[in-house]
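Progress note, project year one: complex with protoporphyrin IX containing FE.
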Amino acid sequence: MESVPDEVARALVSPAAYADDRELQEAFRWLRENRPVGLIDVAGFDPFWAITKHADIMTVGRDSTLFHSGDRQTTLTSQTDDANIRQMTGGSPHLIRSLVQMDPPDHQKYRVLTQDWFKPANVRKLETRIRSIAKAAVDRMADMGGRCDFVSDVALGFPLHVIMEILGIPEADEPRMLQLTQELFGVQDTDLSRAKSDSEIREQAALLQAVVADFDDYFQKITLDRREKPRNDLATAIATSVVDGAPIQNFEALCYYMLVATAGHDTTSSSTAGALWAMCDDPAQLALVKNDLRLIPLLVEEAIRWITPVKHFMRSATQDTRVHGQEIGAGDWMMLCYLSGNRDADVFDDPYSFRADRQPNKHLAFGYGPHVCLGQHLAKLEMRLFFEELLPRLDSIELDGTPTRSHATFVNGPKSVPIRFRLH
Ligand code: HEM
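Model obtained:
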């Protein structure tokens, strides 16, 4: 088998390539065209298969018995960090045990605990409340004198507030939750991580362990409080849930809160900010939606495809198999490259163009199969309501500097989108 060129392989493991985007997109394009299931073998990482075609990502995603999430690292992790984590945990590759690290049969047992909360019918009940939070965010933007950094001043706060209300976390603690989320997903980025230099960033396992300890500290109190005084919030549903006839263990409850508290906002704000950035680059797309606000649901899907904030999840094969004709051995590690699937020309016309009215739009940004994003209906509702509040009031908008993306191989997106605008 021909090997994957070094520069292509290195891009897939380099946080800087994810911040640049062009380098990463080129690497994915090469892989899709030449080695759709390509072996990435870079010093410092266990070799893994990059699954880059849309159809193959679905094939692997749909079968959680053949392809496990929890046997090896669930996200790209260096050999050093893997070894350090296993030493910290006494052998497990995971610092936490949430839905994304679970496999059958446990995965389903834990997923049902909150599934009803995130169903479209339940999420729709929140529409009035979420709209008022969206309106408040747009009002704050209007008060900013026509210039702001859309990411830090607007996009980050809105979905954070929504998910914290659902979880039942007091507003005063939101900055702490935001900081911990950014330290978790931004661990490779010196602007976001606890590490402030490249040498400190090499201690990734220790950095992550410290963040988990802080979440633990915070959520232990929440668990005790909700068990004593149940309320109508998601934290109560988790704290008082029963698995296999016994109350959920404290560690599993903690991991559940952490997953919901972190997965539920950074991703949504990145997609929102990415859409605005794309429409500043191509004002015709903005005009299209402003002229017909019924297109907003399509704009939302395209925003999520365009940014694909969760760049990958890893799987490993439980037995020898084949994907796209390529032999995969039992235990082999695989990267589901969602961003690549979302630029696959077999599925998307003109995949490198942002088209606000793209339809159909069968993107894989929420994953696929039994682990498909639990919060997808909430994320889409939040973004729809936000754009419904923003776009009718937006008289003009343009970039006011050069946007940047975060250095992160797992969850990444716009870090700063400076804009100049007029709102009425
Ligand atoms: C645009 C926004 C979002 C994107 C792109 C996104 C993406 C994803 C992806 C790709 C997965 C698949 C994990 C896997 O295959 O192992 C996932 C899972 C998950 N997401 Fe989201 N997500 C978003 C918003 C949200 C929101 C708002 C929540 C609300 C709490 C949420 C909660 C979850 C949970 C709990 C899982 C785990 C599901 C499981 O493993 O069974 N996400 N998400």
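The longest helix spans residues 204-228.
The chain has a mean pLDDT of 95.
No further modelling is planned for this target in the current period.
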